[in-house]
Write a structure and sequence with these properties.
It is built from twelve helices and nine strands. It has about 350 residues and is of the alpha+beta class. Helices cover about 40% and strands about 20% of the residues. It has helices at about 5-20, 25-35, 40-50, 50-80, 105-120, 135-140, 170-180, 220-235, 290-295, 310-320, 325-330, 330-335, and strands at about 125, 130-135, 165, 185-195, 205-215, 240-250, 250-260, 280-285, 305-310. It binds phenylalanine.
Length: about 350
Amino acid sequence: MKLEEIDTLTGTAASEAAVAVDLAGLEEVRIRYLGRNGRINDVMEALKAAPRETKKDFGQAANRFKQQIQAAIEERKAALESSAGPAGSMVDTSLPGAWRGGGKLHPITLLIQRATSIFRSMGFTVAEGPDLEDEFHNFDALNTPANHPSRDPSDTFYLDGGLLLRTHTSPVQIRYMETQQPPVRIIAPGRCYRRDTMDATHSANFHQIEGLYVDRDVSLANLKGDLEYFVRKLMNLEDVRIRMRPHFFPFTEPSVEVDYSCHVCQGKGCRVCKHSGWIEIGGAGMVDPNVFQACGYDPEQVTGYAFGMGVERMAMILFGIPDIRLLYENHVRFLQQF
Ligand code: PHE
């Protein structure tokens, strides 16, 4: 070993000691250089073999080797012991950061927010009602006779004390009209509950967006125009047509089911619309005079339309989700896509 090599080794050992990440690592450095089988043996060997005229230089280099490494170890040890980090860990601030992924909105939330902002732009405000309803608001005031099949305990969740989990968002219409005078222009997004067996398109817990517009001379044409505007904005499409099929709901007369021309094929027929060219968005109709009466409105003075849309249905169509259960299982890989 040459003289310069001893000094180089001294420098290497001292810098290794200075970057040891913990006390165990520091001990390894000490053993590697100053330990019984460490590099110090090479240094002492070189000192012993050195010719007489350079013995003194080698002796001094060997001393520097021992003292400087020892000092570097002491210094690092003090730093590690006093540092606050776990086991004196070192933070390399030059490393690139680790991306953990940002939070995202659930597709149901996303759709409700989008729909709400469109209806707001049309002059609707948002109304709310309780999930836990009474029979009056969920059925009676909505002109639903006592023997109507939807009231059956095999379809509706009843609780002790006569309350029930609302089967639709329509009771919000009643609660709003009970406390507010016309004109009324509200939407009510919210959860609904039915005793349905889970399958690819049914869930016992789902969401609806209810709409209610009451004023003088509101007509079915207003309903058609408003829903057409809504779908156009929701789908971001210029050319959307609406059609209405006759239907029955106890709380509207006439009642309709509303379809819009398929946003994928523009009505020509494709897989998304099951080759019919039309996609259903919900039930609707003109508010039945009996409903107005139950809320204290005069059906001779006002008319109104109401609609109820299924949020899960819309989300599945809009995002191409094949199974409603995907919306509730909360798999991160599914949710990340929205
Ligand atoms: N409440 C109805 C349902 O759940 C939908 C609806 C709302 C129909 C408003 C007409 C008017 O199926």
